Amino acid sequence: MAKDPICGMDVKESSAFQLEKEGKRFFFCSQHCLDKFAQEHGIEDKDVTCCVIRPKQPWFFNKVFIAAAVIAGLGALSYFMPSLVPFRNSFAMYFQRIWWAILLGLVLGGVIDYLVPREYISHILASPKKKTIFYSVILGFFMSACSHGILALSIELHKKGASNPAVIAFLLASPWANFPLTIMLVGFFGLKAFYIIICALIIAITTGFIFQLLESRGLIETNKNTLKLKEGFSVIKDIRQRFRKGDTFPIGVESVSRLGWKTFLKGIFSGSISLANMVLWWILIGMGLASLAAAYIPQDIFQNYMGPTALGLIVTLIVATIMEVCSEGTAPLAFEIFRQTGALGNSFVFLMAGVVTDYTEIGLLWHNVGKRVAVWLPIITVPQVVLLGILANIIF
């Protein structure tokens, strides 16, 4: 297996896009990554025409197509098999709740891919210093996307060179404590919502620090996409230099007009499609499994076994693992748990544990960031969530 030098994905050499430069062969997961590599290394089309191998893969082998086809097939069968109607209705409900978040995440990911050089992400979000984690959490707090929407952005930041601890902190802070969710939770829980928000930020920061420690001791993977920058590198100075040179660095109205809107939008679209091929099939699998759980797990389990007890917290943790689809979507369900049981801690666990035990999220981290990163995520975060949930039940 070779590693794509742009996105960091493992690719089979026999089916990868290939480019030979100065006697060295590079392997890419897609034409998009190959083009980005050529652009970053100043390789023009005329220079690579003779030494690029583009594999021919049938469109129906695309993982996104396969996942979508399976779900669409089950939906079609539901019109002939009544037992599948609950699955169809559950999937439709989930899709209506999060399609916008997924689309937003992919579009923003495409914007980052096209507009933001890897040097900038490497400079701001790759340092082993503590402030890097705070930058990631602050960035995550102001992102308006739910857990599944933010997955695309997290993977894009990883592709751009953000350190793995920074990616984890960003991934946790955004769906857990983003600004729109803060407003929504205050509307549901009143002042008690601030306990949920503050604890969410604390866990994101603490987890980021722990991952930095693990990375320093070689216990998790490091991001191979991070660029080594010259000492004294400044993002502001670099932007000014690019404009003075008349570079086509597409930031600002002037550069957009110079490039042309068609080229500008095409670049963003290309980045979004490349990102979709990486993450969308995992999201579809997660939605499908959550729909099966929502359709066929008896509702009595939710109503009778989620009280403010040790058993209630464990059951809530299991249900959150199965049901997590979108933070904004699960907020009303979390409030319903609080309204019926009076257990704020269970609502906290329901909101938070679903993010850190979500199979879609862990699968994406495993496949794109690192297997050890994916394994450590629930090990570090779940105990924190449960302890803070117990504390909430005691206090409130």
* Percent range for β-strand residues: under 5%
Spatial ordering of strands, largest sheet: 4-3-5
Structural class, by secondary structure, is mainly alpha
- How many domains comprise the coordinates? 2
Terminal residue distance: 53 Å
Summarize the model shown:
The protein has 19 helices and five strands. The chain is mainly alpha-helical and 396 residues long.
Provide structural commentary.
With 396 residues, the protein is mostly helical. The protein has 19 helices and five strands. It has helices at residues 31-40, 45-48, 63-77, 85-115, 118-125, 130-141, 147-160, 164-177, 179-189, 193-216, 235-245, 253-259, 261-296, 299-304, 310-323, 327-341, 344-356, 359-369, 371-395, and strands at 2-3, 10-11, 17-21, 24-28, 52-53. Strands 4-3-5 form a three-stranded antiparallel sheet. A hairpin with a 6-residue loop joins strand 1 and strand 2 (10-11). The longest helix has 36 residues, at 261-296. The model has no long low-confidence stretch (mean pLDDT 76).
Strand-helix topology:
Layout: E1 2-3, E2 10-11, E3 17-21, E4 24-28, H1 31-40, H2 45-48, E5 52-53, H3 63-77, H4 85-115, H5 118-125, H6 130-141, H7 147-160, H8 164-177, H9 179-189, H10 193-216, H11 235-245, H12 253-259, H13 261-296, H14 299-304, H15 310-323, H16 327-341, H17 344-356, H18 359-369, H19 371-395
Antiparallel strand pairs: 1-2, 3-4, 3-5
Helix pairs in contact: 3-13, 4-7, 4-13, 6-8, 6-10, 7-8, 7-13, 7-18, 8-9, 8-10, 9-10, 9-16, 10-19, 13-18, 15-17, 16-17, 17-19, 18-19
